[in-house]
Amino acid sequence: MNAHSDPKSHIATLSITGFKSAQNILASWGCNSEQTKKILGLTDNAFRKLKSASDSANLDKIQLERISHILNIHSTLRSVFSNPKNVKNFMKMNNHNDFFKGLAPIEIIESGDFIKLHETSIHINSLREN
After folding, report:
1. pTM > 0.85
2. How confident is the model at residue 1, as a pLDDT?
């Protein structure tokens, strides 16, 4: 960013780009708009602004962190699985390890609870180490 760039414009661009990427990933996992809003911590108004790529679509730090977790989960799944179906479907599959307790990861994060999203991201990232 150069000295003449508008910081608000930069935040809006970052917000919109991150949102679009996260929205595409969440859609590939089978999430609808309501689930997407909850997972990303968005109000109806913020969701509309982001979808329309409005210059006033600025996300806060926590919302950007939520997007970061979605992008990191997706990146981990792409590095762990060579089969695109596994990348797409992992989040919808029931998982019986201690953290997931038989639930699908998407069931845990769709509550919108930031801590659950953060912990899910950590547990999925640990797949890289196995």
Report:
1. yes
2. 43
